[in-house]
Amino acid sequence: MDGSYSKSPQSATVAEIEVPKPKGSISCDDKTKDEGFPYARPIVCKMSGDVRIAPGSSSVILTMPLYQSAEGRRVRPYARHDDSLPPLVREVAIKTVANGSDAPECSVRHGDIPAVVFSVGGYTGNFFHDMSDVLIPLYLTSFQFKGRVQFFVTDYKQWWVKKYKPILQRLSRYDIVDFDSNDDVHCFHHVILGLLRDRDLIIRRHRTRNPKGHSMVGFKRLLRRAYGLRRDRPLALGENPGKKPRMLIISRRGTRRLLNLHQVEAMATLVGFDVTVSEARDNGIKRFAETVNSCDVLVAVHGAGLTNQVFLPARAVVVQIVPWGGMEWMATNFYGEPARGMGLRYLEYRITGEENSLAGRYPRDHAVFRDPMAIHAQGWKALAEVVMTQDVSLDLDRFRPTLLRALDLLQD
Fold first, then answer.
1. Distance CA 152, CA 317 (A)
2. Domain map of the chain by residue range?
3. Quick count: other Cβ atoms within 10 Å of Cβ 268?
4. Among 9, 53, 328, 392, who pairs with 186 as Cys (CB 3.0-4.6 Å)?
């Protein structure tokens, strides 16, 4: 593979050789609920037979004489589903025809190579969503093909494709097709429209969505290879006399800043860590991935920076500082449970009402102190404007046992 990314496929095409086509079929996973998780699953459709991808008409055409109920279905092939997404993700129509002669003529034949059509629109550009909504679902959907799969990307962003090129190249050996500007008609025997997903930063075995038992441990292994990350385990205390375990504190700009960051850094140093402070956006993704992988403990206030735990060596320690305001469920489900699923050790430090900046903005009888869940009940906009805008200032005496516990875990 030459590593280039053109807007038309190079090596995924085959000579004009007609082979028998499998009988047309389609199945769509359109379950909208995940028990215990308040987010709907996206629609994913798998098609086999004479399947033609026609980007010019934003459609996938399936020859299927005996089955027409897929006609008129429109799919936004982005691995998250909520009410804010429609303007951000292009729709792709599924059309059925009774005979191949009724479908647009093939201009590129791909033989037995399958295709996956997915979007990089939506909330991409935020590292949490890049991972949760695209890269992890893409791994779950396509890793089974061992690189012999053609990707079609809607809502195409050249900068995004370039940014994650090392990962994309691990999943497909072929040049990505820009769905938004390609006018060919691509013929396949197997097409997946949309991406399979589990929960955010989580992959569990499932009878239909993950029958092969792919996992986040496997995804982390792929990341190590993609970025040349050397460490697959943390430093064990006493392993190298005189060498301290490394701690990375991820700093933030804007909201949820750690106001006494330097004091926390000094205390962690006194406790016995070699401390580095960095913003996730300071360097390119490869360089920051190397920084994270070189550390044994990652500390961060709740936010997208914690997604970088995907680069930690197995059995490293994640410490999440949980803001005030009923954030425990989000903290545990977005980063705590994922950390455990990645083979990491996880600690939470839940701040008190005296350790945040909300006290300077709201009276003590305000709902944010009296009944934080009432703000959650008002929806994401209210939560983002009130709870998510706080900064934190840790009680050092109260936080110190959490650092000592992190040290203890490195001895296990």
1. 37
2. 25-213, 246-409
3. 23
4. 53
